[in-house]
């Protein structure tokens, strides 16, 4: 007899399954909205409906420069981001109702970027559970979640279902 999956694993599995719909060549991300044990929505990253995605038209990369304080010194950090893609968390917020989000949990394959973290912090969601770290924005996102009083946790020991994970490029 096989053991039953715990709820965190179950919902993260669904987030990874949603990520398989992504056509982004750099990162497949999936997200699910859960209220208690009830699944309310799924989403993945991709171009807007009816617009060619990254696999068809290529990534639309922009470079951002961020001033960071590192060991008491100011340091310029360059980051590339694709702006063709709507992130999974953004799609999840676009296609779910505010009432459903109040007090709910988001399971997302990857730690949210700064923009998505800002949006989630103001969405009514009280908990974010993720699997893979996103080092570009990690420290400031963790600070935001702490300041906002949101539960923000990483499922480090989690293993995605066989065949659904892609290698991440930065």
Automatic annotation (TrEMBL):
- Per the UniProt record, which EC number(s) apply here? 3.5.4.12
The UniProt record lists the CMP/dCMP-type deaminase domain at: 6-152
Task: Give UniProt keywords alphabetically.
Answer: Hydrolase, Metal-binding, Zinc
Q: Which InterPro entries match?
A: APOBEC/CMP_deaminase_Zn-bd, CMP_dCMP_dom, Cytidine_deaminase-like, dCMP_deaminase, dCMP_deaminase-rel, Deoxycytidylate_deaminase_dom
What GO annotations for molecular function exist for this entry?
dCMP deaminase activity
Q: Which domain of life is it from?
A: Bacteria
Q: Hydrolase: present as a keyword of the record?
A: yes
Question: Keyword Metal-binding on this protein?
Answer: yes
Q: Which cofactor does it need?
A: Zn(2+)
Under Pfam families, the record lists:
dCMP_cyt_deam_1 (PF00383)
Record-linked CDD domains: deoxycytidylate_deaminase (cd01286)
Report the SUPFAM superfamilies cross-referenced here: Cytidine deaminase-like
Query: What class does this enzyme belong to in the EC scheme?
Result: hydrolase
Against PANTHER family, the record matches this protein to: DEOXYCYTIDYLATE DEAMINASE (PTHR11086:SF18), DEOXYCYTIDYLATE DEAMINASE-RELATED (PTHR11086)
Which family does the entry's similarity section mention?
A: Belongs to the cytidine and deoxycytidylate deaminase family.
Q: What is this protein called?
A: dCMP deaminase
């Amino acid at each position: 007899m096989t053991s039953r999956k715990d709820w965190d694993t179950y919902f993260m599995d669904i987030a990874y399954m949603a990520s398989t719909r992504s056509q982004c060549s750099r990162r497949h991300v999936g997200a699910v909205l859960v209220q208690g044990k009830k699944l309310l929505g799924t989403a993945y990253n991709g171009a807007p409906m009816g617009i060619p995605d990254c696999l068809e038209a290529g990534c639309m990369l922009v470079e951002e420069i961020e001033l960071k304080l590192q060991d008491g010194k100011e340091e310029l950090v360059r980051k590339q981001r694709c702006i063709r893609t709507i992130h999974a968390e953004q799609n999840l917020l676009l296609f779910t109702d505010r009432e459903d989000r109040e007090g709910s949990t988001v399971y997302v394959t990857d730690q949210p970027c700064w923009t998505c973290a800002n949006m989630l912090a103001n969405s009514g969601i009280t908990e974010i559970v993720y699997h893979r770290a996103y080092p570009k924005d990690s420290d400031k996102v963790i600070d935001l979640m702490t300041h906002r009083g949101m539960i923000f946790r990483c499922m480090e020991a989690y293993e995605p279902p066989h065949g659904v994970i892609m290698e991440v490029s930065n």
